[in-house]
Structures are given as structure tokens and as C-alpha cells.
Specification:
The chain is mostly helical. The chain contains 14 helices and no strands. The protein has one domain: Hypothetical protein af1432 (Orthogonal Bundle). It binds fe (ii) ion. Fe (ii) ion (FE2) binds next to loops.
Amino acid sequence: MDFKLANALGRIVELKDRSTGAHTWRVTMYAQAMAEADRMPISEVMSFMLGAVLHDLGKIDVPGEILSKPSGLTDIEYLTMRRHPIDGWERLRRIGVEDPLVLNVVRSHHERMDGSGYPDGLSGSDIPMEARWFAVIDAFDAMTGLRPYRHGTREKDASRAIEELRSLSGTWYEPRAVETFEALYEAGRLGSILDHLNDQNGLETAAPPLSKEVIEMARDALLQSNPEGADHRHIDDIIKLAQHREIRS
Ligand SMILES: [Fe+2]
């Protein structure tokens, strides 16, 4: 999959949940910084970044009202939410994505080292390394990204988030990934990502609007990746929203 299409898919999914202010953009930039710090070969850096762009693709299938609910999900809503790694993985497989780095990040980014994560309840080294690394990034951004129901200064949030990662290192998170992330943070390498676009308008300013052609391409990919015979009204709706918001004449 090329970056243009992946970027469009990432942005379209994000249209469903506006509260995160360019979460996808930030985690992709963190992924690049982490991959480079780990001296990953360049082709793997690209795949890891693609995984970051697409990690929540499956949220296309989660109703918007569940995504934007701050807390208190019912059991059924919780289960629906927890399906997104598998839904995203299956969608990518159906459109022919085979890159294990991309697929593993999408499927396993909510797994935890002690086996308490989802969707497969994998533990330790059974969790693909790239997913263990991305889990640290995703958790950090969840703790520091703008949420309508959380207030605090950016610095306080960030150091609290680092502390949280450290305290769960080895239990939930891959220790080497936590160390690397913390070192990057301490060296000031993550500040511009953390501060940039982390506001309500973040998504609008993250990148130029998507073109009509790219949205068409994303629509084709989403329809092609839809399970056979499954309802695709939610895809049509999100594409309409994307066309409305993104195409500016
Ligand atoms: Fe996720």
C-alpha cells in the first residue's frame, strides 16, 4: 500500500473521532523517531510508520457514538470497541496487504506483555516486537493527546505519562521500547510532536486537504475491504463526510 492511500485512510478514520486532534499524525511521527533511534533499516522504518498510520483502521467499523464516549461503555460497546484491531487487520488482508510489520502493528497494538491485552491475549515475546514498540507510542499519545474530558498542562501530562510507562514497563510494555521512548523524550526529541497540532483544530492543519481522487481511492479500498455481503452504509457516510470536509474549492 502506498503512503498516499494509507494517509487518506488514516485521516478518514479519524474523522469519526475528532477529539484526538491529529492522533494518527503524532503517533506516526513518534514511530519514525523510535524506529530511527532503534536503527531500524529504512524499509522497516517505512513499514512501521505505515502501521502507525493504519493502526486504528478498524475503528471505521466502530459507531461514532462509542468512539466519542469518554467512559462508561456498556459490555457490548466495550466488545465492539475491542474488535477494531482484528477488523483493521482483516480489512488490510482483504485488499492484499502482506507486509508483516504493518499487519502486526494493526492487529497487536493493544496486547500487553503480561497477556492482559487484546484481541488475542498474547504475552511477552509472542507479541510481535513492532506491536510492542507501537503500544508504548499509542499509550503515550493517549495520555498526552487532547481529550475533551481531560485537562492539565502539557508538561505535567507528559512527565506523568512517562512515569506511567515506566511503572508498567515489563508488565504491560516492552522495557526496551519504554527506555528508548523515555530517552528520546528526555533529549527533547519529542517536544515538537507533542506540542504540534495537539488541539481541536489539529486535524485541519496537519496536512493539506485530501483531493477528490485520493478520497475516491480510499473509498474503493474501504469498499473492497468490506466483508462480503456486509452493510457498507457506514463507509458511504464517512466518505460523504470526508468529501464535505476535505474537498475545498
Ligand atoms: Fe487502537
